[in-house]
Amino acid sequence: MTNTVAAANAEISRCVAASSRPIFDKPTIATQPPLVIRPYRLFSQRFPLLSLSLLERNSMSSCRLRSLPNDSDASGGLTYKDAGVDIDAGSELVRRIAKMAPGIGGFGGLYPLGDSFLVAGTDGVGTKLKLAFETGIHETIGIDLVAMSVNDIVTSGAKPLFFLDYFATSHLDVDLAEKVIKGIVDGCQQSDCALLGGETAEMPDFYAKGEYDLSGFAVGIVKKDSVIDGKNIVAGDVLIGLPSSGVHSNGFSLVRRVLARSGLSLKDQLPGAAVTLGEALMAPTVIYVKQVLDIIGKGGVKGIAHITGGGFTDNIPRVFPEGLGAVIYKDSWSVPAVFKWIQQAGKIEDAEMSRTFNMGIGMVLIVSKEASQRILEDANGAYTAYRIGEVVNGEGVSYH
């Protein structure tokens, strides 16, 4: 058990009380026991999962937190592995976990509950926190935290119900913590879920002065006959891409290495844009929940991929049946200036960029041809969506 600070608990509890609310909208769900909003305290119970697919992304996420090695090749192009993140090692860990807990592969873990599944997800925001410390931008990092989990569970068609967070630091700065929690509150409001509780942990000498760590946990619900699982995907289906706000919350170990090599600072203007590098890199992750659930409700959605660590190359195939792959139309959307700068400043190969970053597309929906026409027409003015590719026979992702 970790220590909690009464002053912080009181401050954070007020945030929770002001922002959290039950979200059982449907009569069939309202028969469940009422949702009780709890003040911040310890949440340490673990529950068995029908699918432990969450671990696949967490194995990659844990790699993000390594210290960066020295740059051994100052003249060549950078890679994610150069920056201390070995995606192949993460994949090997997943392979070993699969031997102990079969069922890995999706973005969220499913637990049966009557005629529904609870869908759970957990994540952090990786070394983007380092930039928060350097820029002093703490108000939006909580949005990133919520986004990483709720965007995962919505890929199953699940509506987020509630969120829990974990905030850890060596010495609690109540004003700073309040800024972080305010971002979490904002993220929960954007995803229409309750901030149910969490933990504030003060661990002297464990973190550097002024630094903290975050993790989050989301639970949603979906009817068993409405689960989006990719099983019905066929060759000829269409890939619809929803735009990202930038780098989101993956790839920052490589971003920080590129920044160091470029000679620019976070206060310098991003080449080709009217914002600073710090502002561009700290743009909060888009929360796609309401938009995706609205699209799902109109029918025709067969699979959904949240584009995080692994980019298009590793994330899209995770929702495909065996024997199917994807062709991505490279010029079908506008790549944000931040990615162009990262690639140029780091001399990064196209394949490495596509396996590390979202490249401007944060969520991909695999839909029937008929549904794709409707989705693109409905997007007119309401939201932005692109036809970025199609499903083909074969394996993997290719770019044309």
Automatic annotation (TrEMBL):
Q: Which UniProt keywords apply?
A: ATP-binding, Ligase, Nucleotide-binding
Q: Does the keyword Nucleotide-binding apply?
A: yes
Identify the GO cellular component terms for this protein: cytosol
Which pathway does it operate in?
A: Purine metabolism; IMP biosynthesis via de novo pathway; 5-amino-1-(5-phospho-D-ribosyl)imidazole from N(2)-formyl-N(1)-(5-phospho-D-ribosyl)glycinamide: step 2/2
Q: Cite the PurM-like N-terminal domain residue spans from the record.
A: 114-222
Q: Which Gene Ontology biological process is one annotated for this entry? A: 'de novo' IMP biosynthetic process
EC number per UniProt: 6.3.3.1
For the keyword Iron-sulfur, the answer is no
Give the Gene Ontology MF terms in alphabetical order: ATP binding; phosphoribosylamine-glycine ligase activity; phosphoribosylformylglycinamidine cyclo-ligase activity
- The EC category is ligase
* Domain (PurM-like C-terminal): residue spans on this chain: 235-397
Question: Per UniProt, what is one Pfam family of this protein?
Answer: AIRS
Q: Which family does it belong to?
A: Belongs to the AIR synthase family.
The UniProt entry, under HAMAP family, shows:
AIRS
What is the protein's given name? phosphoribosylformylglycinamidine cyclo-ligase
At the highest ranks, the source species' classification is: Eukaryota, Viridiplantae, Streptophyta, Embryophyta, Tracheophyta
Name the gene for this chain.
purM
